[in-house]
Design goal:
Shape: globular
Low-confidence stretches: none
Strand content: under 5%
Number of helices: 9
Radius of gyration: 19 Å
Order of helices and strands: HHHHHHHHH
Helix content: 55-70%
Distance between the termini: 68 Å
């Protein structure tokens, strides 16, 4: 490998994230990345272990970028204002950075991410927003899953043109966020099945 190339794990991760946005996360390969840098595939192994390692790095990078956007959006807000800001930042990232966003949806070995600052920050911001609705465990986890499923499902459908009705997609998004707010304010009590 030529020293002038200046490859590092961080530089490769950023380039792979850019490539994912251009061609789709599923199409990111070590060969395509090596071609981008004008080096042989083998040159990359000094910096990343394999394709799974590279994809994990992209997922962690993207997850950090996503939560940074959300944190800025929700700062100083609570309740419906925070939920609307959170949802808007989430959707904007998913639509503007489709390859990176797809990376945030892969399953990552928990031992690799347990101590990452982005994961801690994601939990703090998301759970903090939901605590303003008066939720505690296990409802917090259930609410996080509801938000993620709703936001991800909507963004996945929108990005593939899955909404064919003439209704404005933004108006439907706003109504979905309104419905989530009402749901969070009126969270159903879990029935005690211990009897």
């Amino acid at each position: 490998m030529s020293p002038r190339v200046g490859l590092t794990a961080d530089r490769l991760t950023e380039a792979a994230a850019d490539l994912a946005d251009e061609v789709g996360f599923e199409n990111v390969t070590l060969a395509a990345l090596a071609k981008r840098f004008g080096v042989k595939d083998a040159s990359l192994y000094a910096h990343v272990r394999n394709l799974q390692d590279l994809r994990t790095r992209v997922a962690l990078l993207a997850g950090g970028e996503l939560i940074d956007r959300i944190a800025v959006a929700v700062a100083g807000r609570a309740g419906k204002d925070a939920l609307t800001a959170f949802a808007g930042a989430y959707r904007a990232y998913a639509l503007e950075r489709p390859g990176r966003y797809a990376a945030t949806q892969i399953r990552i070995d928990q031992s690799l991410i347990a101590g990452t600052p982005a994961l801690r920050r994601t939990a703090e911001i998301t759970y903090g927003m939901l605590r303003a609705y008066g939720l505690a465990e296990p409802d917090l986890t259930d609410a996080v899953r509801l938000l993620r499923a709703t936001f991800h499902g909507y963004c996945a459908l929108e990005s593939t043109g899955g909404f064919g009705a003439p209704r404005d997609v933004q108006k439907s998004w706003d109504r979905a966020v309104d419905a989530l707010h009402v749901t969070l304010e009126n969270w159903p009590q879990e029935e005690n099945t211990d009897d």
